Amino acid sequence: MAQTLTRYTDVIEIVGDILKVRIGSAGQDTPAIAYDDLALVEGVDGFRSLARVIKIDRDVASLQVFSGTKGVATSSTVQFLGHAMRATYSANILGRVFRGDGELLDTGPELTAEPKVATGGPSVNPARRVLASKMIRTDVPMIDIFNSLVESQKIPIFSVAGEPYNQLLARIGIQADADIIVFGGLGLIFDDYYYFRRAFEDAGIFPRTVMFVNLSADPVVERLLVPDMALAVAEKFALEEGKRVLVLLTDMTAYADAMKEVGIAMESVPSNRGYMGDLYSQMARRYEKAADYREGGSLTILTVTTMPGGDVTHPVPDNTGYITEGQFYLHDSVLDPFGSLSRLKQHVIGKVTREDHGQVMNTMIRFYSGARDAQQKQAMAFDLSDFDHKLLRFGELFRERFMDIDVSLPLEAALDLCWQTMAECFEPEELLMKQQLIDRYFPRPAASHDADVPDAPGPAAAVA
């Protein structure tokens, strides 16, 4: 801790938000300053800001100044604190909002005396993890039925600018059956931040939510700290308190852009489209925090990844696809079943959900695929068969009842609605499903028996 008593005054260069300071001279041992350590930058005019060590080259340390270097002079002093960034962690942080530098953004009581937890540490030992086997219900039919969200999963929402991905992310956070919600906002405009906070408050989940927010007007360097703080706190809740934690991050493309901006200021050699060569490893380091712990709860990560120009080959979504376990594809305000994928859904469908879940999922997608083909035939003026007309009718009902992200249904009610939709369009023998499932779940006509013989009850018989 000796370096905490020393102030360094030899500031040799200021570029963007990067400050370079000489920490030793030739022939002298440099102090024990480590990568990611925090420092306090003070100016002669009263300027004070935290900074983070991002590079050490012999006797020169490069620091990212949290509040930016506007007004910082070479006469400033630097004092190293001897530790990396820490996030406040205790039960008292629930219902609170923090800035990207870890300071409180709301007007509640101060938390300076609360315990701190180090950020940016390694992911948990794989020996302490268990195989994903528990479903997180979201009441979004296109997720629960067709691409189930599983505890310990890491999965993004792929979208483009202008789509309601923030509204979808907020709905999932509100409706998901998780114990704790940890929200990380990256480069949000104030309206979006206010929307998330108001949505969580109105839904009554804010008392079990903690928010880390970097606004678009805030320093870019703070954008790089938000995921680490959110994940460090989430990991503590999951490991030490056995909570089922859902982490929501928006938008990881903004995070990658912040990495690129810092890399350019550091004169690093860029890779694909100007992004740094370590883009994959930096994102993977955060995503790999997702886990279902053998002794404890679970940590699930759901993010937004915007695709500039809708280009899925853009470096950010392209690298993300290799790290995560699928994606939800949002376009035209609907979740597309063909662009979406959950690689862990087979661990829960039919195992912790109803027996007909797998067959319903496959049959509905088969019919919707046929409806898309029938639409193309209709657009090209080909003759349509009677079955094609049934498929077209099914396609309309499918988009209206399931694909709209505003639709909210519990899983069992959504499965029953699937059976009703198929019954409105097809005969039982056209479903090509197991007969015992058809006998049990296929809706029956209301007057199929004599008046004095009551119908046999069934799970789908009460569907309107």
UniProtKB/TrEMBL annotation:
One of the Pfam families matching this protein, by short name: ATP-synt_VA_C
Domain ATPase F1/V1/A1 complex alpha/beta subunit N-terminal: 32-82
Domain ATP synthase A/B type C-terminal stretches: 350-441
InterPro entries cross-referenced by the UniProt entry: ATP-synt_VA_C, ATPase_F1/V1/A1_a/bsu_N, ATPase_F1/V1/A1_a/bsu_nucl-bd, P-loop_NTPase, V-ATPase_su_B/beta
TM region positions: none
Keyword vocabulary terms for this entry: Ion transport, Transport
Similarity field: Belongs to the ATPase alpha/beta chains family. T3SS ATPase subfamily.
Protein purpose: Produces ATP from ADP in the presence of a proton gradient across the membrane. The V-type beta chain is a regulatory subunit.
This protein's name: V-type ATP synthase subunit B
Organism whose genome encodes this protein: Thiohalocapsa halophila
